[in-house]
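#struct-help
A.M.: can someone run this one for me? Single chain, 282 residues.
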Amino acid sequence: MAASFAQTNTATLHQAGDDNRSNVNQYNAGNVATQMQVGGNNYTNILQAGFYNATYLSQVGFDNSIDIVQDAFGGSIADVAQNGDRNRAFVWQSGSVGYSRTEIDQYGSDNNANVSQSGVINGNNSTITQYGANTAILQQSGLFGVNDATILQSGGGNLAVLTQLAVFGTNEAFISQNGGGNVINLLQTSILDNTSVVITQNGDANNASVTQNETLDNSLEVQQNGFANMAAITQTNADNALTLVQNGNGNDITVGQNGGVNMTIEMNGMGVPIIVTQTGTP
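D.P.: on it. Structure tokens below:
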């Protein structure tokens, strides 16, 4: 067990062996935590509260688990790398003025990443890369700035759930899945700026459900390749742009748009009939 309480708030820890555990609590300005664990059952808990927070964690072994809580006025950075069988990472970031950034790389069997980012100014950025039976849950919210999310999954049972909420900011997302049982759920909401998302799925049972709520511009690109593809897409208000390409045997598309419409749909396979509803001026 290792703990750190400091004014300058710099913690560096290396652990090797079985059942490695650490708790790092940092308060004040300029919190930096760097840690590496190599062993069988690694667990790390990080709590940072101050003007600026940065955490760099690496775990190699079995049953790796990480919890990071960062509350900063200036901004927060969380870089996590896990290589093992049961990787789990939870990151919670909250800030006022600064920019929050999270990067999670998981290589193993049962990867699980859960990220929550909230801020007022400058926005949020998250990148999640997973190889295995992956689950990624990401939520971003802010008043101004850009919510930027990237989720890359390769494995047998991928699940990606993304929620982006912005008042005067922009939502941008890119999700790529390559595996057998892919499922994507996405919600983007912004009042006075743009929302855009690109989704790529390659696998056997792809399912993408997207809802965009924006008073200005909604942009969506979806490409699915597999056997049991299904996409249910809703775009509302202002100018909506949709490009959808499906190649497979069980394609099923339901599209509803409200506002100016720019739509391109290409479908190949033995799909169920398409239902499209459009309202507005192209």
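A.M.: thanks! Confidence is low (pLDDT under 50) at residues 1-6.
D.P.: also worth noting: Residues 10-279 form one domain.
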